[in-house]
Amino acid sequence: MDTSETYIKMSKKAKKFLPEHKWSSGDFFSYKYEVQTYEDWSFSEGIIEDMIKSGDCVPLYRQDQLQAILLSESYTFAALFCDFWWLYSSYDEALGSYDCDKGRFTSMEQLWLVFVMKKKYNKIWDEEEWREINVLVV
What we know:
138 residues, alpha+beta, 5 strands, two-stranded antiparallel sheet
C-alpha cells in the first residue's frame, strides 16, 4: 500500500472528484499528512468521525478500490487492462514529453489513480495538480 508523500498529495487533490469513500476496517487515510488506519471500533467511538467531518481526512485508495470505481460503471476488467496499458504507454503524449519508463509513478496505486482520473474526469497529474487535457487519450 502506497503511503508516500507523493500519493498522499495526489489523493488529496483528487478527493474532490472521486466518489465519497465507503470506509471499512483496515483502510488507510491521511489526516494532516499523517498516515493512519481506519478501524471500525474507532469510528463507533467517534475518534475518526470528527477527522472525516473536518475535511482534512484523505482516503488513500488501494489498487482494488480504484479498479472497483471503474468496474462499477460497466467496464470489463479486460477492457480496463487494455486502456490502462495504452494510457501508461502514451502518458508522455498527454503530458507533453514524459517517458513512463523513467519512473514517474512508483506504485500501482499511483498508476491506477492516474488511470481513474483520466477515464472518469479527463484529468492527468502534472506533479502538482490534476489538470484537464485536450489530447485524445483513451
